Amino acid sequence: MNYSKEEWETRVNLAACYRLMPLFGMSDLIYNHITARIPGTDDEILINPYGYMYEEITASSLIKINIKGDVLHNPHGEELGVNQAGYVIHSAVHGARHDVSCVIHTHSRAGMAVSAMECGLLPITQTSMRFKDIAYHDYESVAIEMDEQARLVADLGKQDAMILRNHGLLVASASIAEAFNAIYWLEMACRVQVDALSSGTKLIMPSEAVINRTHHLYQPTVRRPFGLMEWPAMLRYLDRRTPGYKD
């Protein structure tokens, strides 16, 4: 199939994002999803085939669907399709947030642990202060019911990250590069919190003024959109290890 330059570039970057996730311990067998909006479209997104592990994803293996769930191009035919839970969560965000180009959802060990903590994500490190205003969505069982979409979108609001209670993590960003950076740092914040709380030692909580200042400095309009500068290095990292993502 012939792809536009914009779609192929998106496919390559999205495949790279999939390949990076297991290398940093953020994959879950054949489950979870990363979606990206195809530039120049309002309702066309790319998603992984349900049955592939992240390390198997290539640019040409991604499935193109629209927000309504119609399959526009599936290179796997009848063999593999799209996970319903992935469609429900990701299409909800893409449909409501036109400023979002990429959505990542994970079931990481640390992310699930923090999602089950009543305290939520604590601003105990510089990394976690980036997510001071993180959103929360209460667990409603496996996300296969379409009526959950409205509540999920309402809980996310205008935030770029959300903890799905008793479930996992979600980020919604303006680009694939920014989304990977956000989920990486959110995952690190969760891992540190689990480590710190398990130590049994009393934690130091920075002042509200310091937390707010640090959070402000991580906003994309203050210094830079984090992830864009880092992305070429991430692609070089992949090229040294698993260059097949470009196929």
From TrEMBL:
InterPro entries: Aldolase-II_Adducin_sf, Aldolase_II/adducin_N, Aldolase_II/adducin_N_sf
Record domain Class II aldolase/adducin N-terminal: where: 12-194
Organism superkingdom: Bacteria
GO cellular component: cytoskeleton
GO terms, molecular function: actin filament binding
A Pfam family reported for this protein in Swiss-Prot or TrEMBL: Aldolase_II
NCBIfam families: PRK07044.1
Similarity comment: Belongs to the aldolase class II family.
Name of the protein: Class II aldolase
Native source species: Advenella faeciporci
